[in-house]
Amino acid sequence: MTGGAFFGYAAALLVGLVIGLAGGGGSILTVPIFVYGFGISPLLATTYSLFVVGVTSMVGSVNHLWQGRVDLRTTLAFALPSFLSVYLSRRFLVPALPDPIFRFGDTYLAKEDAILFFFAFVMVMAARAMIRNQKPEQGEARDGRPRYGTLALDGLAVGLLTGTIGAGGGFLIVPMLVLLAGLPIHRAVATSVLIIAVNSFVGLLGDLQHTRLNWDFLLPFTGLSIVGIFLGMYLARFVAPDQLKKGFGWFVLAVAGYIILKELI
């Protein structure tokens, strides 16, 4: 096993650990792990990420469902448009992107490089949200009613993001569920995990039309991530999630900077 692969499998534990401790955020690392730890192409890495994120989040959501923390009505309002968006983006948009994305003389931007730059930008935004660690106010939406129309539009946007980069987008979903649906923060986190899980599986369906997966690699990696989730759920009794999320945010920011520098060089 190479040093990069060893780091990649160790990072699989970290992905699940962070999701188990903080309710989200770990999935933002899956694409960089696949690309730089295992030498997988960025496009295929987004497909693999959808599988890992989907299975790992689904395991986490089972506990939330059992505890009755998931708001199913809000899930449907947000998730149905999001499912459509993520499927269409994986089935048609991503394969249809030109390669290179643009060319000007001898200068060009390859499709896979463009996806990595966009992913790094999203990582910076996720890191910013985790470092600031500002929770939206709990309680009902301003008019006392969930804004299902706006939730549906936001679901379309998040589905497009998930379909393009293969990450869950929990750092975007949770504030939307609190501000627009009036969910308390713990119910927003639980509902977000379920949305991320199903979003990822729907996006994977779009990919299976034209992509073959290496199950011998994916299943052990996903298994380690699931082990990390259970470890994170156990450690959550002793570790303050807010402090963990802030520290992890700085780590994500450093990884984003590494991606940008490596691709530029």
From TrEMBL:
The subcellular location is: Cell membrane; Membrane
> What topology does the record note for this protein and the membrane?
Multi-pass membrane protein
Pfam families xrefs: TauE (PF01925)
Q: What is its main location?
A: membrane
Cellular component GO terms, alphabetically? plasma membrane
| InterPro entries tied to this protein | TM_pro_TauE-like, TSUP/Inactive_protease-like
Q: Where are the transmembrane segments?
A: 7-34, 40-62, 74-94, 114-131, 151-179, 185-205, 217-236
Q: Provide this UniProt record's keywords sorted from A to Z.
A: Cell membrane, Membrane, Transmembrane, Transmembrane helix
Source organism superkingdom: Bacteria
For the keyword GTP-binding, the answer is no
The similarity comment for this entry is: Belongs to the 4-toluene sulfonate uptake permease (TSUP) (TC 2.A.102) family.
PANTHER family registered for this protein in UniProt: MEMBRANE TRANSPORTER PROTEIN MJ0441-RELATED, MEMBRANE TRANSPORTER PROTEIN YJNA-RELATED
What is the name attached to this protein's record? Probable membrane transporter protein
Which species does this protein come from? Rudanella paleaurantiibacter
Taxonomy of the source species:
Bacteria, Pseudomonadati, Bacteroidota, Cytophagia, Cytophagales
